Each structure stands twice: as structure tokens, then as C-alpha cells.
Amino acid sequence: MQIATEISGSRAVLNLNGRFDFHSHRDFRSAYENVMEGTEVRDIEINFRQVDYLDSSALGMLLLLREKAEVAGKNVALVGLQGMVKQVLEIANFGKLFTVRD
Description:
Elements: E1 2-8, E2 11-20, H1 25-37, E3 43-54, H2 56-72, E4 75-79, H3 83-91, E5 99-101
Parallel strand pairs: 2-3, 3-4, 4-5
Antiparallel strand pairs: 1-2
Helix pairs in contact: 1-2
């Protein structure tokens, strides 16, 4: 998976591309930790528009991000969900844990 980070004011967007699975954990953690260090960033969006697959380890990584963001006083939103990725996150009830936007 590739991750491109965009920061604009108080908002950071992590644009994910490819398969979000166990092999992505180091890159994903590094990307969100870099964003979390920025004190000006209050809102973090995870953009799934280019993600075609995710597994249970990806769900765990998102939950870990949520916990760390909560402690740091930051908000996390999941955006661009579609297809199988959207179905998996809906089945896992992530809409109750995260803000979900188109």
C-alpha cells in the first residue's frame, strides 16, 4: 500500500492506495504518527477511495489510531468508502466508532 499525506491547516488527509493489510502496518503507523506530532492538526481523514482490499489487521490498525487520536484530542474520519471495503467496515460497525463521510 502507498500512503500520501496532505496537510492543510488543521486537517491532515492520509490518502491510501492499494491493499490495506498486515504488510502495511509499519507504513500506516509511521504516516499517522507523523501527523499526530503536528500540534496544529486537529482532524485526520483516512481516504479509502483507492483501497481495494482490507483485512482484520487493518481494522486493528484503525482502532489503534482511534485510541491514540482520542488521547491527543484529535478527530478521525473515514472517507471515500466503497465496495468491499465499505461492506467490511459496515459489518464491523465502524460507523459507530468513527465519523464516516463520502
